[in-house]
Amino acid sequence: MSNTASPSPKPIVYVEYDPSSLPPALPNYTRFVCIADTHSHEFYVPPGDVLLHGGDLTNTGTVHNFEKTMEWLYGMPHNVKVIIGGNHDLTLHRKWYDDNWDRWHYRIGKQDIKTIMELIKGPKAKEAGIIYLEDEKTTFQAKEGGRFWSAYGSPWSPWFYDWAFNYPREEGEKLVSKFPKTDILLTHGPPHRIFDRTSGGDYAGCVDLRNRLPILRPRLHVFGHIHEAHGAYIHSWKDGSCPAVQNDEAISEDVQDNIDTTVFVNPANWPMGKRRADYGTREFGGEGFQPIVVDIVD
Ligand SMILES: [Zn+2]
């Protein structure tokens, strides 16, 4: 018999489902529930082992916004909740906020970052299993006695009218070259040509992130930012190149057991664009914009 690596069963992904009849994860699988661009709104999120948030936790990162968002996250049943910021979470980008706060918060006054960090990283957050990542790596156990998963999170997205955590496109390569190889990658911005098409037809994702992915090959890559590009795709690294997929395409290609796969997920929950029109959804997390559930074998 050959001595090759044992076959790794395929990931299972739910993009559209009836929450009351979502099947439980199979034995030896970990259930990741992915959300993004929740902007201080609340809606139903299915239970699972791990919650992953792809950034834009709030509208403009006020203390009030964070109180609302974090209370919602504290109350969720997942053992571990890995979260990142996004371009709307203005206060989390401290240096930028010091220089720009009055453009946004001149009426309510400069927001207290200490209070916000306490909500995100304080005892209450820790007790609720929240891990906030800002250009850093973590490892966690999703289930008692289960395997350890590694994750890296980065709140940045390519420059767009000088919001928080924006980088000029020419600095993309420098940023992504620091991303380590992990099981899970969280970036607020999408990679180029992967769930990144705007309503205007632009592919807004980062080319340098796309070029880095064949090296990183995370088992799960969660992002957001382009709300209208909500979707998921199971990619097999057969020929070593990235896919080109948008939200109107099939969910998976020919996935083979002994080849690395990455599940790409843009779970943006704010209904926008053609998809919103097609589904007639207006509510956050509503039809067509539900949290995306990904089961991956341990
Ligand atoms: Zn957003």
Automatic annotation (TrEMBL):
Residues 47-228 form the Calcineurin-like phosphoesterase domain. InterPro entries: Calcineurin-like_PHP, Metallo-depent_PP-like, UPF0046_metallophosphoest. It holds the Pfam family Metallophos. GO terms for molecular function: hydrolase activity. It comes from the Eukaryota. Signal peptide: none annotated. This is Calcineurin-like phosphoesterase domain-containing protein. The lineage of its organism: Eukaryota, Fungi, Dikarya, Basidiomycota, Agaricomycotina.
